[in-house]
Specification:
heterodimer; A: 310 residues; mainly alpha; ABC transporter involved in vitamin B12 uptake, BtuC; two-stranded antiparallel sheet; globular; B: 374 residues; three-stranded antiparallel beta sheet; 3% strand
Amino acid sequence: MSLDTAVIMVLEILNSITILVLLALGLALIFGMMRIVNLAQGEFFTVGAFTVLASTRYAHLPLWVGMLLAPLVVAGLGIAIERAIIRRLYGRPLDVMLATWGVSLLLIGLITVTFGAVTQGIPFALGNFSVGRYQYPEYRIVMTTVAAGLMLSVYLLFRYTAFGRRARATIANPDMASAAGINTPRMFMLTFGLGAGLAGAAGAIMAPIVGVVPTMGVLYIARAFITVVVGGPIVLLGTLSSASALGLIEALISHFPLFTIATAGHCTPPPCEISIGGSAFFGQIALLIFAILLLRLLPQGISGFWRPRP
Amino acid sequence: MRRGSSAELLSALVLLLPLLAVPWAFKPYTANVLAVYMIYGLLAMSLGLIWGAAGIMSFGQTAFFGIGAYAYGAIGLNLINRTQQTHAALLGGLAAAALLAAIVGYFMFYGRISDVYASIITMALTLVLFAFAVSTGGDEWVIGVARLGGFNGMFGQGESSQNIANFQIPPVTLWLPGMTEPFAFKINRESAAGYYLVLGVSVAVYVLTRALVRSRLGRVAVAIRENEARVASLGYDTRFYKFALFTIPVRPRLRGEHGGLRPAGWTREPPRRLRRRRHHRAPHELSRRGRSLRHHSPRRRTLDHLPDGGRPAHRARGAAARPGRGPGGRRPRAQGRGHAAALPGPRPSPPLGVVAALARCPRLFRPPGRLPAG
């Protein structure tokens, strides 16, 4: 492997990790910390992407304005859903699952009715830079930077600010936090809103590189959940490390064909064979299989291994 | 118990009679539309068993449904012209679904993944299989003569492409010893044979599922739903019971069968069936069918075989006031309330995994008598 190929491969791995971090960050708060199985998370993502689409195409705002708007819109939506539905269902995980599933279907329906079921693209201005023989889009580097920034700021927010301390206290022991004078319903609402906003931000950031379509959330939600589940009990660092492990596997399998299987089809041109590995789809399969194997070995997730629960 | 059981049997028979008469009262077409709903009813029954009885919310039922259908289609298309029947395809559908469930179930339950995680893994499985089915549109995705067909679904690519029958997944066809010619359970405008097949399978599966819930396996499953820590501390390997219910006995048969039945009426095998969205029907169907699987598992009787009557730990908290309670009635188990937490049962500790076990090794070789620093 020549040097430029190696550099591109490293960039691809970084890109896979970036996407997983973006997808999983909001869910790490909502599912990892609050233990809410929010099946509408994928639709938060979709709404973020559609906010960018609407603000650039229909309101003719600059792209960055749309991207800043998206988290706010989705955080508002998340808070509304928390107030209307999830607030009443704390402590009933399966009911939350079904309720948010209904919300997810409702949102898909509403977006389809509003924007139509077609895939739309968002044009963006950044170009490519060259690595040896290859061209690589600059926007992916921007994405990685933004993802790292979001991750760091969420960590600092929960680690060092008064809001973060109150939120963690509320999640750890609502009764005690309430007795200590913390407005716990408000903290639940804000944490959920923050998680939703991060999903919206992820959708907005990824909107230019994926097709924007009402059902796009379905494509990402499984990977987001898997990343958080594999991350384990130390939510943010666990999510980062599981995103790194899973992103590495995904990128490697996506780019290197493992073997081929000849089949009896009638192909043109003739050699009729299925190549296992070497496409994004097999990357996803490998991610899932690897995650299941990892959970068999480490049922508490990666960070559960660092600090086993009593 | 006897009286309740015979009343239920009677009401089931009363419900069955109008269903038997549907093809006469209406057109066969109406019956065949109904058959599709009854197949979804089978799907709902499988969810009723795993969710209602064992308390594991599985999003994977549609995946097994779809795998059963694809396996039936692939085997059926390849063998129908040679053997004139689809026995192997039916069994293959069952086996494929059971095999997938066994693999996934092993990793989930023997890894002691919690219930919510199990739901998520089954959901991911369903979504990935859907993505897989959609991405198989190319010419190279062929099993024998069966093209997987991507989003449009499975069809045959017969060598002599003139014969249109080659292109369709064959209906369920039986050719048992003693029959002069094969009999196909077609679902079309003239014939209601397919409807009766679905009805018969529904009844059989209902009876089998009831028997299963009342068997030792089913009763332990319900006990696990109520309080896993307690059942484990009584010496039951809860992992095995969850695994078994998820995989072997009747459920894959349900899945496989409706998976296998479905193509009988449909020329193609659209992967939409694998899709997550299909799922929202199953819970609704479950409530529409009156949660029959749950009603007849009153906790008293269910736990009778456990020592000390198996008084449920949550009884005082209003759980007993809601027999046959809804899916949400389940609280996270091993919550530490009731006397389950007070039982100092020898709960097996969860496996650490190879890596963690290796990491622990140095501690095993530490010389005795020396306290670790700090």
